[in-house]
């Protein structure tokens, strides 16, 4: 991924509208590119500050950099969880296909014995 693509994805990341694949690629890029990370950090801080104003939490001071780090960790966990669920779904489908094939072989063997 190049910087231009990553910068175009910042708002979608903040709004949690990236696909799992896009999010993983985006996070991989910003972890390697300090310029894009800084861009994300700026937009994230503005977004979070605006939300704080909307929620009118007077007197609450937040560590926005820490919130961004937490958000990135949360996104990484989400990616791992999605990948694991896809893996388990794939394994389940394979097991199901093998079981169905074994059942069909069993039925065919039974038919041969009947004839």
SSE layout:
Elements (H helix, E strand, L loop, with lengths): L2 H12 L5 H13 L1 H22 L8 H51 L1
Helix pairs in contact: 1-2, 1-3, 2-3, 2-4
Features:
single chain; 115 residues; mainly alpha; 0% strand
Please characterize this protein's 3D structure:
The protein is mostly helical and 115 residues long. The chain is 85% helix and 0% strand. The protein is built from four helices and no strands. It has helices at residues 3-14, 20-32, 34-55, 64-114.
Q: Roughly what fraction of the amino acids lie in strands?
A: under 5%
Helix content: over 70%
Mean pLDDT score: 90
Instruction: Please identify the structural class as seen in this structure.
Output: mainly alpha
Supply Rg.
Answer: 24 Å
Q: Spans of 5+ residues with little confidence (pLDDT < 50)?
A: none
Global morphology: elongated
Instruction: Kindly state the number of beta strands.
Output: 0
Main sheet summary: none
Termini distance? 63 Å
Number of helices: 4
Order of helices and strands: HHHH
